[in-house]
Write a structure and sequence with these properties.
Blueprint lengths: L6 H10 L3 H4 L3 E4 L3 H13 L3 E5 L5 H9 L3 E4 L4 H14 L3 E2 L6 H7 L1 H9 L6 E5 L4 H13 L4 E7 L4 H8 L22 H10 L2 E5 L1 H15 L5 H16 L7 E3 L11 H11 L4 E8 L4 H9 L4 E9 L4 E8 L4 H13 L4 E3 L4 H10 L9 E8 L5 H9 L4 E9 L5 E8 L5 H11 L3 E3 L4 H7 L1
Parallel strand pairs: 1-2, 1-4, 2-3, 5-6, 5-8, 6-7
Antiparallel strand pairs: 9-11, 9-12, 10-11, 13-15, 13-16, 14-15
Length: 459
């Protein structure tokens, strides 16, 4: 049996220490992925029953894989928090032991065996160990062991920029609860770190590096190209952080370790990883240039592009402004080359801007180019829909027919929830009412009306 993540270590360590009579009554846990598999495999090995509670939004591929391991799967609640409340109540009523995902000394100790293996196998000095951080169990366990054996080794956590609960907690000196958590690296998408894990991390770790999803995707691609292994986003997180750290401090000829903590990748997510990986390694940049509609102007634009490798090209005429907007992707490049191209275009009075890092462009606007219009009172929002039957109807019941939907673009993200761009006609007098209904919907969302790339491409 294989779990393809470190979570089995902590689950087995805690469960193997339970008294026989308690183990026979079974265990229960809540998880949307790797911890569930760890508990299921530990239960099968130890010969006890396991109930795994998962949010109803959990992709079928995940709960089916847990079911195949012999555990009883219960889908309950729209979120991890709701599923956890149910799991703890059921555990108490049926006298089953609750196996937490990270916040327990035995779980932390089990994950710490990773640190033990590193120190045993690495005979040369280690400058730093980079560890992905969700609830904090893995980094707390590694830090507790390594700092006792080799206190000079730096233990550095790595978090996504949109799931940075440990970094914020360390900064404020107390545990912080995130209002919204980015779901791309779903294995570390935690609202709050554990009480015990935070206590240990506050005392033992040396800092936290934050990385974006482009950098994570680039690390997934690097590992695949070099090792032919496919990591899940949270499994590639530490590698992206190690590279960013070494690049920032210009570190060379030292030994660093990055924990590739999980390989439970959903195959349908690979498309998104592929799209973002080249941006993360600066192998692709996206530029927008305005070309006046006059004889020879487009030829002048092409001459200014020169021998630069263009990998994607979109052009849309704006009759009212008597100009065309050209949106194009540039292949392998350096920052200097991109800056030089922008300056070259500007010097010939072709207004140009780099829009590579605009997330709405990556997810939506690159597919919608050409839909230019001015809609009265249009409020632009990005929603994350849970990928389950009825998610769209729940959205429509909450907002329609109160307001007219003027735009809708759906972009699935491979089991992480659907990224949906929505235009809604809301008058200024109705904004508070709209926010009330949108907040009660329970879907993560952002208002994007001021997004500069939307103004360029769609208005």
């Amino acid at each position: 049996l294989q779990a393809f993540s470190f979570k089995l270590r902590g689950a087995y360590n805690m469960m193997s220490k339970l008294p026989k009579e308690q183990l026979e009554k079974g265990v229960i846990c809540v998880s949307a992925g790797n911890h569930a598999q760890g508990v299921a495999i530990a239960a099968k090995t130890l010969g006890c029953d396991a109930v795994i509670v998962m949010p109803v939004t959990t992709p079928q591929i995940k709960w089916e894989s847990v079911k195949r391991l012999g555990a009883t799967v219960v889908l309950e609640g729209d979120s991890y928090a709701e599923a956890q409340v149910y799991a703890k109540k059921r555990g108490e009523s049926e006298n089953q032991t609750f196996i937490p995902g990270f916040d327990h000394p035995d779980i932390i100790a089990g994950q710490g065996t990773v640190g033990m293996e590193i120190t045993r196998q690495m005979h040369d000095p280690i400058h730093a160990i980079f560890v992905p951080v969700g609830g904090g169990g893995l980094i707390a366990g590694i830090a507790a062991f390594v700092k006792r054996i080799s206190p000079e080794v730096r233990i550095i956590g790595v978090e996504p920029t949109d799931a940075n609960t440990m970094a914020l907690s360390l900064h404020h000196g107390q545990r912080v609860v995130l209002d919204q958590v980015g779901g791309f690296a779903d294995g570390v998408a935690i609202e709050q770190v554990g009480l015990e894990t935070f206590r240990l991390c506050r005392e033992l770790i040396d800092g936290v590096v934050l990385v974006g999803r482009d950098a994570i995707c680039a690390s997934i691609k690097d590992v695949f190209e070099k090792k032919r292994s496919i990591l899940e986003p949270s499994g590639a997180l530490a590698l992206a952080g190690a590279e960013a750290y070494c690049k920032f401090y210009n570190l060379k000829d030292i030994n660093v370790v990055a924990i590739t903590s999980g390989a439970n990748m959903n195959f349908d997510r690979l498309r998104l990883v592929t799209e973002l990986a080249n941006v993360g390694r600066q192998r692709k940049a996206v530029l927008a240039t305005f070309v006046p509609e006059e004889p020879g102007s487009f030829k002048r634009f092409a001459e200014l592009v020169g021998k630069t490798n263009i990998t994607k090209f979109n052009c849309r005429y704006e009759p009212e402004k008597k100009q065309s907007l050209v949106l194009y992707s540039v292949g392998l490049h350096t920052k200097f080359e991109i800056q030089e191209m922008v300056e070259r275009m500007e010097s010939h009075k072709l207004k140009t801007m780099e829009v590579t890092n605009n997330d709405m462009l990556k997810d939506h606007l690159g597919h919608l180019m050409g839909g230019r219009t001015n809609v009265e009172n249009e409020l632009l929002c990005r929603f994350v829909f849970p990928e389950r039957p009825g998610a769209l109807m729940k959205f429509l019941h909450a907002l329609s027919p109160r307001w007219n939907i003027s735009l809708l673009h759906y972009h699935a993200q491979g089991g992480m929830g659907a990224n949906v761009l929505v235009g809604i006609q809301v008058s200024s007098n109705d904004l508070d009412k709209f926010r009330y209904h949108a907040n009660n919907l329970g879907y993560e969302y952002e208002v994007e009306i001021d997004n500069e790339v939307f103004q360029l491409l769609m208005r």
